[in-house]
Amino acid sequence: MNVTAILFEGFETLDMFGPVEMLGASGQFETKFYSLEGGVVTSHQGVPVQTEMLDEAHEPEVLLLPGGMGVYAMLEDDSFIERLAELSKKATYVLSVCNGAFLYARAGVLDGCRATTYKARMDRAEEMFPQVKWERSARWIVDGNIYVSSGVSAGTDMALGFIADVCGRDCAEKTARYAEYTWNSNPENDPFAC
Amino acid sequence: MNVTAILFEGFETLDMFGPVEMLGASGQFETKFYSLEGGVVTSHQGVPVQTEMLDEAHEPEVLLLPGGMGVYAMLEDDSFIERLAELSKKATYVLSVCNGAFLYARAGVLDGCRATTYKARMDRAEEMFPQVKWERSARWIVDGNIYVSSGVSAGTDMALGFIADVCGRDCAEKTARYAEYTWNSNPENDPFAC
Q1: Phi, psi angle pair for A37, to nearest 5°
Q2: Quick check: B119 and A180 CB within 8 A?
Q3: Does the distance separating the beta carbons of A33 and B45 come in below 8 Å?
Q4: Under DSSP, is residue A165 helix (H, G, I), strand (E, B) or coil?
Q5: Is A154 strand, coil or helix?
Q6: Which of A114, A93, A119, A117 is nearest to A103 (CA)?
Q7: Taking the C-alpha atoms of B51, B54, B60 and B63 in order, what is their torsion angle to the nearest 10 degrees?
Q8: What residues contact B123, with CB distance under 8 A and at least 6 apart?
């Protein structure tokens, strides 16, 4: 399956690359990187990633969105939010990590859905997006075709959960072993619950 | 402190970006990315990263090297190995993740040192580099100013261990909490021991 990963200035490094590692290592997914304008986009921890223009992303099977300090600027960018809403409707699966869920919430993707986000921003999420059923204790949440995780490293656990759902539990466990990763495989086991 | 991160085609995504996340999130380190030729270098899982030429890397405080499938081609690249040996001598700290240790071993950096590597490549490490004291059970190993970790996600635990040693345990624990990361903080606790 193809993965359309959307980046923006100040995205959180591990939000994106934990899932990209696991999806890629499973052998079942190929990720391409996009941003609104294309070109080099730099993470909050200084990783400069080459991206294609978001207009060139068509029919994503898996849409993947990180969080990070850069989220708050993107919430005010109407053309980004509009394009995100369009792509979310076309995607087979819609994934976000950390406060990336704020962007889906702004785009209307999470209206009436169960969701979670970065625990240190949960109060703000509840204030800004009361139409979403935010959960304060969850490593990740699956609601229909939407997967949203808690902060940063929770995205890696969610990615393995997603692989298990789509490709089978064996594939996820093999991928975790390959990466010498101790997978927290229970989405309800949240060591960082509010 | 500045971190000189060395990339090559086919590096393993999480080997590099787990440590970069933790080092950056601690607020104590700034990472720059280099490769032998400069330009865009793509990870084994498809992440295209913009890099500077390795010749422009001077006096690294922290030298950081990932592993990955791309390691085996670099072992045969004499100019890369020579430059790596030079930079390792100048660096205050020398770090590698996974089979990145093969490159330091080839460059003579690990002669007579205790070290570990990706568990699925331990036999090969012992055959190729008998001058290194390889350890079959270790999440990571510290020998003097050299830090080497086991496979892929072990690098993230090692990075937090390195932060603890250099900046204090509180800083490492705060960084792990920030990233909602359950840190395996004991280098001898190796769930993937040979």
Answers
A1: -100, -10
A2: yes
A3: no
A4: helix
A5: helix
A6: A117
A7: 70
A8: none
Residue in chain A closest to B69 (alpha carbons) equals: A25
Structural domains of chain A, ranges and CATH numbers in brackets: 2-178 (3.40.50.880)
Rounded CA-CA distance B12/B70 in Å is 8
Q: Does A56 touch chain B (CB under 8 A)?
A: no
CA–CA gap between residue A96 and residue A182 (Å, rounded): 21
Q: Residues B5-38: pLDDT tens digits? A: 999 999 999 999 999 999 999 999 999 999 999 9
pLDDT attached to residue A60 = 93
Q: Is 90 exceeded by the pLDDT of residue A29?
A: yes
For A101-130, what is each residue's pLDDT tens digit? 999 999 999 999 999 999 999 999 999 999
Residue showing tokens 């909602």: B180
Measure CB to CB from residue B153 to each of A47, A49, A179 and give the nearest one: A179
Between CA B43 and CA B121 the distance in angstroms is: 19
Coil, strand or helix at A84 = helix
How confident is the model at residue B194, as a pLDDT?
85
Contacts of A48 in chain B (CB under 8 A): 33, 49-50
B153–chain A Cβ distance below 8 A for any pair: yes
Query: pTM (2 decimals)?
Result: 0.97
Q: Which of A17, A33, A153 sits opposite B180 (nearest CB)?
A: A153
Q: How confident is the model at residue B58 (pLDDT cuts 50, 70, 90)?
A: confident
Q: What is the ipTM of this complex?
A: 0.96
Out of B33, B152, B179, name the one closest to residue A152 (CB): B179
- Per-residue pLDDT, averaged over B141-159, amounts to 98
Contact B30 A46 (CB under 8 A): yes
